[in-house]
Write a structure and sequence with these properties.
Helix content is about 75%, strand content about 0%. It is mainly alpha-helical and about 80 residues long. The chain is rod-shaped and about 65 Å long.
């Protein structure tokens, strides 16, 4: 059954839903780009001789988290 917009209140809710959806899509795009940037920086620092353990300590994450970030970057090209 299709629900039709019956009032200004319904129309306002639908517009708010569209606004929130658009914001969520934009946040997802930004998060992906930040993840790519983070991987590039980690790769560059490792290439400069930084240890995974040192990066992990500075970032407040585990060494295993750094390993996963590096592995994610080696899986292939980012989308």
């Amino acid at each position: 059954m299709v629900k039709h917009i019956e009032s200004a209140a319904h129309a306002a809710l639908l517009e708010e839903l569209k606004r929130v959806r658009a914001a969520a899509i934009e946040h997802t795009r930004a998060a992906r780009e930040l993840s790519r940037q983070r991987r590039r920086l980690i790769d560059a620092m490792l290439a400069e001789g930084f240890a995974q353990a040192d990066l992990a300590r500075e970032l407040g994450v585990t060494r295993q988290a750094i390993q996963k970030m590096v592995a994610a970057g080696q899986d292939g090209p980012s989308r």
